Every structure is written in C-alpha cells, then in structure tokens.
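hi! just following up on the protien thing from before. the input was this:
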Amino acid sequence: MSFCLKLAFLSSVSKIILYNSLDIICYNLAKKKPMDTLFSIIQTDNDYVFSILRIVAGIIIFPYGMQKLFGWFENLGGGVGIKETLIAMKAKNIPIFLAWLVILAQSLGSVALIIGCFGRVAALGNFIIFLGALFVHLPEGWTLNWLKNKKGEGIEYFILLLAILLIVILKGSGAYSIDYWLVSSIAL
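and the predicted 3d structure came back as:
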C-alpha cells in the first residue's frame, strides 16, 4: 500500500472517530440539561479492565507532560520545560495556543487519566495529540527504530496508545476512578 493510501486511510478513520465523539457530545449538549451532559461524560462501569487501560495510558503520557511542563525528564522530542517546549513547537509552525493546549493536555491530562477524573475528556485530548504524532512518524514506517538504522521512529507505538485511548473515550474511566465514584454517588 502506498504512503498516500495509508495516509488517506488513517485520516478517514481518525475523522470518523473524532466526528462520532463530537456528535455524541454535541447531541448531549443540545438535548439534555447540563447535569445530564456532565453525567454522560463521566458515566462509566465498574470494570477493572478499563481502569488498567486508563492508568497505563496515563503513565505512558505522564513523562511527556511533565517534561513539557516542568522539565522533569530529558528531552523526549518536544523541549524541556515550558519555555523550550514553546520554542520547539514554534519551530514546527505550531501556533502558541495549540502548544499550550498540548502542554496542558499531556501534563494535566495524564494525571487526570491516572486518577480517573474526566477520563473521557483527557483521553480525547491526548488522542488528538498522539494522532498528530502518528502522522508525523508515518513516513518512518510501522516499526520503532530498534536497530537505529532509520532517521526516526515508526508508528506501532502510537497505534497501541491510540487504541488504549479510544477504549477510554468509548467506555470511560472504569473502576477505581473519580468518575465512577461520582457516578455511583449521583445514582444513589
């Protein structure tokens, strides 16, 4: 399959996922009261599988967010600390507003995923970010650069993370989450 066909396929799949997620949110906003909309966003089941996936996604994203926000980790490709991150994003022609959204989504979103607070929102924000990363790494092929013989990394890591985030978007935070605690408190 050619590069253009792969790109077109991934683009159409990502549009379907994003449009369906936005349709659900917009439908709930238009047809329901604000509390009903909030309830539908945090609605989740007492399922441990969703909890494990949510926590794993949060742990994976945490170093990226903390590196961009506080400079806690060495450079993972996006700058160290807020100032360097903004400079690196500007060099990639990413608007400052979007750069701030990336910093906030990866730092606060990773913590939100770990504790299960508005897990769907955090997962959606990070889904969009890592979908962009997937398109950046698409020319490098499927596999990661295990043998150090390519310029960059492939997309297999991003596909895995996007699949995990998609499950959280669709199913919610699961057991052991603030979302589940709130849902069960409201249901009483």
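DSSP finds eight helices and no strands in the chain.
The chain has one domain: 3-28+40-187.
cheers
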